[in-house]
Every structure is written in structure tokens, then in C-alpha cells.
Specification:
This protein is of the alpha+beta class. It has two domains: 3-128, Ribosomal protein L10, N-terminal RNA-binding domain (Alpha-Beta Plaits), CATH 3.30.70; 129-184. It has six helices and five strands; from the N terminus they run H-E-H-E-H-E-H-E-E-H-H. The protein has a five-stranded antiparallel beta sheet with strand order 2-3-1-4-5. Helix 1 crosses helix 3 (55-65) and helix 4 (88-101) crosses helix 5 (119-127).
Length: 184
């Protein structure tokens, strides 16, 4: 590969590393072109990038970007999944793809910032609900608590209204009866 092409590849890797929220290392060896294409498509549909990298170029980019931890992801033939936004989404997409397609892609490791994750931790990350699910769950719990509070605060007022309503209703009945008796 010419030096200019290598320099461009290093710059592209540096940009991907800067923008990503998670980097997941996969071993793509043993996969044919159609399987890799299907994998890339599944990732791309979720705004995730898959890059087959030369280990040397990734090491150079990591040194220049001052992100040495990413070098831990490199071992043998390596494809890096760069995820943006919620960290569990790429792990979930990979897990779902492996389950649904039956294609065995080895997930080697992941990095979230400087924190390294092993394959079992990546599976745990994939099983977590997304941000929207957590927010809606929290909203449901808050609504339940607020509804209970409103009921509790409203109960004394309703009770007071009932207590006051009884004598007033009786008084109205008595007055109505008197009026009817007085009427010729």
C-alpha cells in the first residue's frame, strides 16, 4: 500500500476513534464476502460502522490519537465495529445478528473510553435495555408514585366534602319539606 494511502487510512481511523462511543473488536476470519456484507448492512442500518483494519495502521492511529487502550483490541485478523451514541446498541446489533443469521462472528473485546470489556461483559451490555426503554420505565414508575400522592392528598378533601355534604343535604330536604307544607 503506498504511503499516501496508508496516511489516509490512519487519518480515517483517527476520525473514527474520535467520534465513536464504543469500539468492538471482531474476528472476521472464516467469513465469506456475502456474510461480511450482510454483517456490514446490519450494522449500517443502525448507524454503526465496521472497518477491517491493518493492525499496524490501527496501532499508529492509536498512538497519534493517544488512545493506547485500543491496541488491546488488535490480535490477528481484526474488524473493528465503531458505535456512536448509546454504547449497548452496537453490542445488541452484533448479538442479534449472530443469533438471527447463524453466522459465527467472534467478538474479542470492546472499549468504552478507557474501559476494556471482555466477551462476557459485551454480552451483558447487549442484554441491557436501551435508553428509551429505561426512560419509559422510569416515567411509568414516577407516574405511579405521583398518582398515589395525588390520591393521598385528595382523600381528606373528598372525605371533608362528604362530611359536609351530609348535613347540607339533610337541611335542603327539611327546608324543601317546610316549603311544601307552607304552600297553599
Amino acid at each position: 500500500m503506498p504511503t499516501e494511502a496508508k496516511a489516509e487510512a490512519v487519518e480515517e481511523l483517527k476520525q473514527l476513534m474520535e467520534d465513536c462511543s464504543i469500539a468492538i473488536s471482531t474476528d472476521y476470519s472464516g467469513l465469506n464476502v456475502s456474510e461480511i456484507s450482510a454483517f456490514r448492512t446490519a450494522l449500517r442500518e443502525n448507524g454503526i460502522q465496521f472497518k477491517v483494519v491493518k493492525n499496524t495502521l490501527l496501532r499508529i492511529a492509536a498512538d497519534q490519537k493517544e488512545w493506547p487502550e485500543i491496541k488491546e483490541l488488535i490480535d490477528g485478523p481484526t474488524g473493528i465495529v465503531f458505535g456512536y451514541g448509546e454504547e449497548q446498541v452496537p453490542a445488541k446489533v452484533i448479538s442479534d445478528f449472530i443469533r438471527d443469521s447463524g453466522i459465527d462472528i467472534e467478538v474479542k473485546a470492546a472499549l468504552i473510553g478507557e474501559q476494556s470489556l471482555d466477551p462476557s461483559q459485551i454480552k451483558q451490555l447487549a442484554s441491557l435495555p436501551g435508553r428509551e426503554a429505561l426512560v419509559s420505565k422510569l416515567a411509568g414508575q414516577l407516574y405511579g408514585q405521583l398518582a398515589g400522592l395525588v390520591f393521598t392528598l385528595n382523600s381528606p378533601l373528598v372525605g371533608t366534602a362528604r362530611v359536609l355534604n351530609g348535613p347540607i343535604a339533610g337541611l335542603v330536604t327539611v327546608l324543601t319539606g317546610r316549603i311544601q307544607q307552607s304552600a297553599p
